[in-house]
Amino acid sequence: MPAVTVDNILVLPRLPRPESDARQRPVVSVVSADRQREGAGFEVRRPFPSLGLRAADPFVLLDQMGPVAYEPYEAKGAPWHPHRGFETVTYMLDGTMVHHDSNGGGGTISEGDTQWMTAGSGILHDELPAEELVVSGGLFHGVQLWVNLPRALKMTPPRYQDLRASELTLVSSHDGGALVRVIAGELGGFTGPGSTYTPISYAHASLSPGARLETLWPQEFSALAYVLSGSGHAGDRPVREGQLAVFGHGEAITVTADDHQDTPTGDLEILLLGGRPIREPVVQYGPFVMNSRAEIIEAMEDFEAGRMGHVPAEHLTGRRLGE
Ligand code: MN
After folding, report:
1. pLDDT band at 117 (very low <50, low <70, confident <90, very high)
2. Ligand 1 centroid, distance to 99 Cα (angstroms)
3. Measured in angstroms, how far is the CA atom of residue 195 from the centroid of ligand 1?
4. Is-contact 282 58, C-beta < 8 A?
5. Distance, CA 178 to ligand 1 centroid (Å)?
6. Helix, strand, or coil here: 131?
């Protein structure tokens, strides 16, 4: 089962239904995710960045990893690489991911867990499926979101937040038909455990067939809905697996699930995300997200010179899992 589930969602607190005169945010575009390879060669679906999608500000990138049923020794990860200038937020739905960094830190995240890494001034890390998953094969499904940092915080010291599945704030839609897991920020008066330098709201919702998820959404925030699996409508636009809906201005957002869902869970699985736009120039080059080309060159020089840290000695020898 993906992420966190509950036996009876009707016992959960309910999101307040927006007043009937609340201005619905219309969907202004629907973008289909590209498929591409990342790290040591695993496939991701990437709805953004894409040309002209400034609507995603303060987000830089969204990667859906899987869902995939790996055969033994097929699972791959992303071996040692640097980051600077933003935060990575990795949320697992199925399977287990292990990570190590150049400060000697690391962690393991499984279904429903989130790892929040502020790369800030720079860090090296690797991100790999758990050894047991590599050896035995198995289901793997996760999402990595990149949240930008404003100019003033790009060089902040690296930090982590490990959010366990049990810490997620669970609520239901007003009709009791959708389970909503608030990961970060605020949704309809309920707050998730993640805290960000850049204010965002981030939630994973499972809508049963025919369910309607309607909620107020901060007016100053961007608003996006990404379909992990299933089909339905965002506002009045049809959306299906691998598509991202971009909402325009207004006070409330609405997503509905089609009456039939041909998905592993039987539900429409979506991410709701948005944040306060940073509105600064964004220059991304691979794992660095800065404000100017000069800062990208500086990042590459700092990485080459070892100023973002070094791969810990115990990771320098032997075969790397996932390679
Ligand atoms: Mn990374």
Report:
1. very high
2. 9
3. 19
4. no
5. 32
6. helix
